[in-house]
Design a protein that fits this description.
The protein is mostly helical. It is built from twelve helices and no strands.
């Protein structure tokens, strides 16, 4: 019940934010919140299985996604960026030309591996193994996932919009690399104070996402009034402008953190 309620709230928020951002009301399931909601339900169901069943389910999801692309290729082949199988499914379900020509609801099938792996890592950390064992296991998992993605990319291209198997595995590898580094710095070395900026963002991550989707243009133009795009920085001006926008958002999260305000769904 809690998982379905969580999905309903995520989906409702995602629809409202996308409708505001795109100035039109059209149902969709391809934005991050909708995909996270669907993946959360899948992960909840998979975690009810024994560990061997969980691994089999993860492999099956990636295999299913791969098989569908092979069985129903686009105009340019298996991993075609033009009318891939996921987009064709969405167009059939929603009965109108989908607003994105590449991203599709089907992307959630292989990317469910990411939150599932996150649950596995969380369970492993909660077991409180010795730091040396924990660090070694995380490093090994990082190398295995990243290596598998790179090797697979020799046959399957890394395409984010299609969430190809090589991209999913490589993305998981890099996430595990960051997890390994974070564990080393914050837990092994004990420098937990350095994590405070990330904690502040994480405490109200849904606020950050909402601002990015619905208010990004307004915020960027507001910041530009004061920075004028940092013309003295030349071609790096736009980068500095985006960093300034990030600082403004972080300062809002910092204020919420100081006021003990946490926005939850």
């Amino acid at each position: 019940m809690d998982a379905s309620l969580f999905l309903e709230r995520l989906h409702t928020l995602s629809q409202v934010l996308i409708w505001i951002a795109r100035n039109e009301v059209r149902p969709q399931l391809i934005d991050s919140l909708s995909q996270i909601g669907i993946a959360s339900l899948l992960v909840f169901a998979i975690l009810q299985l024994p560990r061997q069943g969980q691994v089999f389910a993860a492999i099956s999801l990636i295999a299913l996604h791969w098989i569908l692309h092979v069985a129903f290729p686009g105009p340019d082949g298996t991993w075609s960026m033009q009318l891939p199988v996921g987009v064709r499914i969405d167009q059939t379900l929603f009965r109108w030309p989908y607003y994105d020509g590449v991203y599709s609801t089907l992307n959630v099938v292989p990317t469910t591996l990411w939150p599932l792996a996150g649950a596995w890592v969380g369970q492993f950390l909660l077991a409180r193994h010795p730091p040396k064992q924990t660090l070694g296991t995380l490093a090994l998992a990082s190398a295995a996932a990243l290596g598998a993605g790179l090797v697979l990319s020799l046959r399957v291209p890394m395409v984010k919009a299609l969430t190809t198997p090589s991209f999913v595995l490589a993305g998981l590898g890099w996430a595990l690399v960051l997890m390994t580094l974070s564990y080393t710095v914050f837990d092994v070395l004990g420098a937990r104070r350095l994590a405070l900026p990330l904690v502040i963002i994480g405490r109200n991550s849904i606020v950050v996402y909402a601002i990015d989707v619905a208010l990004r243009g307004w915020l960027q133009s507001s910041v530009f009034v004061f920075t004028r795009g940092y013309p003295f920085l030349g071609r790096f001006g736009p980068v500095a402008d985006l960093l300034t926008v990030g600082v403004v958002i972080w300062m809002l999260c910092w204020w919420l953190y100081r006021q003990h305000i946490v926005v939850r769904l």
